[in-house]
Amino acid sequence: MELENKKIFSDKWFAYLQEQICNNFESLEKEMNSSKKFISTSWNKKNKSHGGGVYRILKNGNIFDKVGVNKSTVSGTFSKKFRKKINGAQRDGKYWASGISVVAHMKNPKIPAIHFNTRFIVTSNSWFGGGIDLTPCIKDKKEEIYFHSKLKKVCKENNKNYNKYKDWCDKYFYLPHRKEPRGIGGIFFDYERKNWKNDFKFVREIGLSFIEITKEIVKNKKKIKYNKNDKMKQFIKRGRYVEFNLLYDRGTKFGLNSGGNTEAILMSLPPKAKW
Fold first, then answer.
1. CA dihedral sign, ordered 51, 119, 266, 25
2. Which residue segment(s) compose the domain that 14 sits in?
3. What are the backbone dihedrals phi and psi of residue 59, each rounded to the nearest 5 degrees, phi first?
4. Residue 88 backbone zone (phi > 0: left; psi -120 to 50: alpha; other: beta)
5. Which residue among the candidates 50, 105, 115, 177 is catalytic per the annotation?
6. pLDDT over 70 for what percent of the chain?
7. Domain count, the chain
8. Is 47 a member of any domain?
């Protein structure tokens, strides 16, 4: 398949997935007698020919304290300093990237925060990357087993190395200054480019699994009671989330260095946190 067609297919999939995620999350709110809807904001880079995106935010729901669902497709040239850090961009700094990113901070502290993203990036090389990870403030072993087993199943069905992706996730979502993990991990993958058709299938199935996993976790815990101590644990854990995203997250750095929309990039930050 020609590279331009790969770009088109990827872009359309991420747009479709954004719509599906938002529809499903609004349905979860409706089940809890909430009429909250996503507010959509479109944006473009200064040079509109270099693309833009749409970020959707839902706040103060009965399930979601704040959830952002971002989709963007952008192109341009990296700075000479930043291009050294990107695979295949060292020669001329040119890039094209399309992807979707979701961060959900829950109202109920018994329900974990969940993060998901997938992307297709083109420089002089091209590849898929992404992952899913869970950040509970109150651990639940049964939920943890369910979460990891679902991801393992998707990897197995697509001939992907689950153990490699899990280890990568554990190493990536780690706060060295705290000497602690951000959450309980999940999977993280990058530079998937052996077989575009197979890799694209895997990326699609990871996206659909994200919806399924989130719905199952919410369904099991949406009516569980919590107290002030539980909320305090949640706010402290959110503080760790902020630290990681501002200090270490590659997606945040990529977005800021590629001329992305600042509000969309920082939508991952929770509405309230404590230290």
1. positive
2. 3-268
3. -125, 155
4. left
5. 115
6. 100
7. 1
8. yes
List, in order, residues 6 or more apart from 229 with CB less than 8 Å away: none
Residue 4 in tokens = 């331009």
**Residues 100-119: tens digit of each pLDDT:** 999 999 999 999 999 999 99
Residue 115 annotated among the catalytic residues of the structure: yes
Query: pTM of the entire structure?
Result: 0.94
pLDDT tens track for 115-147: 999 999 999 999 999 999 999 999 999 999 999
Provide the token pair at 159. 């001939």
Provide the pLDDT for residue 181: 96
Q: Which residue has the higher pLDDT, 32 or 81?
A: 32
For residue 94, the domain's CATH number is 3.40.1500.10
Residue 35 lies in a domain: yes
Torsion sign over Cα 8, 9, 13, 14? negative
Q: Answer yes or no: is 22 within a domain.
A: yes
- Note whether residue 180 is domain-resident: yes
